[in-house]
Amino acid sequence: MLHYSAMFTYPEINPYIFKLGPIGPTWYGLMYVLGFVFAIVFLKRRAKLQAWRGWTSEQAEDMIFYGIWGVILGGRLGYVLFYNTNMLWTDPIGIFKFWEGGMSFHGGLLGVLAMMWLYAKRTQRTFFQVTDFLAPGVAPGLLFGRMGNFINGELWGKPTDSVLGVNYRGQVLHPSQLYEALLEGLVLFIILWWVSRKPTRTRLISGLFLFFYGLFRFMIEFVRVPDSHLGYQMFGWVTRGQQLCFLMVVFGLYLIYTSRNQPLNQVT
């Protein structure tokens, strides 16, 4: 067996911040709270500093309230439907234990999109006016979510001799959670924030979000270990996550292309 040097050794973090009897707040749950708090603060400030978008701070808060339900319900249901259908009959109560981990980004995305459709109807905006405003505020939440995966010691990558490897229980592994936190969280946020500093065509920001998230996640899946009960699927090397991300990339490119004929995201 080969033994490689590692960037550092995983410290075996207790998933609970503290416990009162059998229950207590978890680090994973805290990461979700931080993501929601950042989104509220960022979007409220964005509404204030970019008044030409036609949003108010109160509307930004309402949007995040809708989004929270979309993330929690969609993320958990998506995990069960996309990655762990056995839970439907082996542990149906476990479906509601989202704080223990097991949340699907793609399910959460679908949940948020459904809630944003409802919110757009309520505020008499178009669907993409809403998602364009929301998208930059979502990316940091992905960073916090992946940090939660790292704290939980889940979603590790493959063994590696890279200097970036982490010693996890005697194996040096790709910290794929941290790769995703960096690319899907920080880098994606910088791209969306930079492009959206000035008025853009409707659909562009939503398209960029789908394209770059899909691209980053597709690449990282090459070093991330797929769920053991799913393994590799198409062609013997494509994961379930890559299949879903491929669809995101295609639809993102479609939105970017069609945004050329859309109006600017600003009040006139």
Word description of this protein:
This protein has a 3-stranded mixed beta sheet with strand order 1-2-3, with no helix packed on it. 40% of the residues are buried. The model has no long low-confidence stretch (mean pLDDT 88). It is an all-alpha fold and 268 residues long. Helix 5 runs parallel beside helix 7 and helix 6 runs antiparallel to helix 7. The protein is built from 8 helices and 3 strands, in the order βαααααββααα.
Summary tags:
58% helix, 268 residues, mainly alpha, globular
In short:
By secondary structure, this protein is mostly helical. It has helices spanning about 25-50, 55-85, 85-90, 105-125, 125-150, 175-195, 205-220, 240-260, and strands at about 10, 165-170, 170-175.
Topology:
Blueprint: E1 8-9, H1 27-49, H2 57-83, H3 87-90, H4 105-123, H5 127-152, E2 166-168, E3 171-173, H6 176-195, H7 204-220, H8 240-258
Parallel strand pairs: 1-2
Antiparallel strand pairs: 2-3
Helix pairs in contact: 1-2, 1-5, 2-4, 4-5, 5-6, 5-7, 6-7, 7-8
Compute the separation of the termini in Å.
66 Å
Low-confidence stretches: none
Query: How does the helix and strand content classify structurally?
Result: mainly alpha
Read across the widest sheet, the strand sequence of neighbours is 1-2-3
Proportion of residues in extended strands: under 5%
How would you characterize the largest beta sheet? Answer: 3 strands, mixed
Percent of residues in helices comes to: 55-70%
User: Count of helices?
Assistant: 8
How many strand elements?
3
